């Protein structure tokens, strides 16, 4: 066991604190990782607001990269010294999805068995709930070995760590769930970190046109920088009509985009996505709705009559062992600009300030450097 500094949310709605935690030595199937960089994601803020569950205290942080320090006796997939990106879906290899050769849909993903605990204060000894089973706003964290994916060690930690969550969700929504490729038109509704990653993924896959839709002009500028060929400000322009028009300019007779990615997580934007796709097109919902939201009223004949597919994308339907090394290599070759997602590098004391900046619009990701 060792003690390290970490960012903990002790109670609902309270500012996070930097405190000392106990990190057990790795047992069977586990690894201790020395964290180098960890992005600040909306999900961390949702945890501290009590929006995910009530299992306080939370050890926040989950978009991270670092170096494996120690592994359990039986671990062979990674070794001390390996540079890894952490993932929150370590696959089991035994469930129905894994057995049928689709581990990206594993129904029984797992985390470390042992618990990290608080080391300071009246509640010292209390077990921590690591965000998404990771907890990487910490000098070191304990994870399942399967949560560590080895990548090119010469890559910049702050940039590649972001593949661990939002950036992978967006890229994967396009290339995995949406099967975007050359000769396909794409529209992305919502251009936050996830949406612009979907745009970057679509550009990487060779799609054209790539239409970015947002209500914030600043987000549309970023979208352009990451590969959008057209932008639509949906606070002033009907996005459905605009998407149809742009697609018809490239592909005569097109009645919308082949793939429309919804990266907001709201019924009205999902409905825009539904009506902005071409016949036999695909809608991909990667934005996360809240439990009170319902499917907007849609004539069933419109669902049937358009054919195609209405899909959801969890974590970009990624398989970390397949997708992380590939995307890191493309980044190293200059074909995927992960640096563009790192708006600022901050210290471990600055997480609360980074939460406050999230709604400014100018920040794609603040990344804690450890
Ligand atoms: N129409 C178009 N864009 C919108 C609308 C709307 N009605 N409402 C909000 N947006 C835009 C915002 O301006 C912002 O650019 O959607 C974007 C959302 O971005 P972020 O808040 O930065 O969220 P992000 O991290 O990209 O995640 C998007 O995916 O993982 C989920 O929970 C996450 O639901 C969220 C979504
Ligand atoms: Zn499985
Ligand atoms: Zn995240």
What this model shows, in words?
With 370 residues, the chain is an alpha/beta fold. The protein has two domains: 2-164 and 337-369, Medium-chain alcohol dehydrogenases, catalytic domain (Quinone Oxidoreductase, Chain A, domain 1, Alpha-Beta Complex), CATH 3.90.180.10; 167-314, NAD(P)-binding Rossmann-like Domain (Rossmann fold, 3-Layer(aba) Sandwich). 26% of the residues lie in helices and 25% in strands. The protein has eleven helices and 18 strands. Helix 4 crosses helix 5 (193-204) and helix 7 runs parallel beside helix 8. The two termini are 20 Å apart. The model has no long low-confidence stretch (mean pLDDT 96). The structure holds adenosine-5-diphosphoribose (APR) and zinc ion (2 copies). Adenosine-5-diphosphoribose is lined by residues 42, 166, 169, 189-195, 213-216, 219, 234, 263-265, 269, 286-288.
Q: In CATH terms, what is the fold-level topology of the largest domain?
A: Quinone Oxidoreductase, Chain A, domain 1
Q: How many domain regions?
A: 2
**Helix-strand topology string:** EEEHEEEHEEEEHHEHEHEHEHEHEHEHE
**Low-pLDDT segments:** none
Number of helices: 11
The count of strands amounts to 18
Distance between the termini: 20 Å
CATH class of the largest domain: Alpha Beta
Task: Report the sheet with the most strands, covering strand number, pairing sense and barrel closure.
Answer: 7 strands, mixed
Helix content: 25-40%
CATH architecture of the largest domain: Alpha-Beta Complex
Mean pLDDT, as a whole number?
A: 96
- The chain-level structural class is alpha/beta
Note the beta-strand portion.
15-25%
Query: What are the distinct ligands in this entry?
Result: adenosine-5-diphosphoribose, zinc ion
The Cα radius of gyration reads 21 Å
Overall 3D shape: globular
């Amino acid at each position: 066991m060792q003690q390290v500094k970490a960012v903990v949310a002790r109670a609902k709605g309270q500012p996070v604190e930097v405190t000392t935690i106990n990190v057990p030595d790795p047992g069977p199937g586990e690894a201790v990782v020395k964290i180098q960089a960890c992005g600040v994601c909306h999900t961390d803020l949702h945890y501290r607001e009590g929006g995910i569950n009530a299992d306080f205290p939370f050890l926040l942080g989950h978009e991270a990269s670092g170096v494996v320090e120690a592994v359990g006796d039986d671990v062979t997939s990674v070794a001390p010294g390996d540079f890894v990106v952490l993932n929150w879906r370590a696959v089991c290899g035994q469930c129905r999805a894994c057995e049928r050769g689709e581990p990206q849909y594993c129904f029984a993903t797992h985390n470390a068995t042992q618990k990290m605990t608080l080391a300071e204060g009246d509640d010292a000894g209390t077990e921590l709930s690591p965000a998404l089973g990771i907890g990487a706003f910490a000098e070191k964290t304990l994870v399942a070995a399967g949560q560590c994916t080895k990548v090119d060690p010469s890559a910049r930690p702050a940039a590649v760590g972001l593949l661990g969550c939002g950036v992978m969700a967006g890229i994967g929504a396009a290339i995995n769930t949406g099967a975007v490729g050359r000769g396909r038109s794409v529209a992305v509704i919502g251009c936050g970190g996830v949406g612009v990653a979907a745009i970057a993924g679509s550009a990487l896959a060779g799609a054209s046109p790539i239409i970015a839709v947002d209500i914030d002009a600043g987000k549309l500028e970023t979208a352009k920088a990451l590969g959008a060929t057209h932008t639509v400000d949906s606070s002033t322009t009907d996005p459905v009509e605009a998407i149809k028009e742009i697609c018809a300019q490239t592909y005569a007779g097109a009645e919308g985009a082949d793939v429309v990615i919804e990266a907001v997580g709201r019924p009205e934007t999902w409905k825009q996505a539904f009506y902005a796709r071409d016949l036999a097109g695909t809608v991909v919902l990667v934005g996360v709705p809240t439990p009170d939201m319902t499917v907007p009223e849609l004539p069933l004949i419109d669902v049937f009559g358009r054919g195609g597919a209405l899909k959801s994308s969890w974590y970009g339907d990624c398989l970390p062992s397949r997708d992380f090394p590939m995307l890191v290599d493309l980044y190293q070759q200059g074909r995927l600009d992960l640096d563009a997602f790192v708006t600022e590098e901050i210290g471990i004391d600055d997480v609360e300030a980074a939460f406050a900046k999230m709604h400014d619009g100018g920040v794609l990701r603040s990344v804690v450097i450890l």
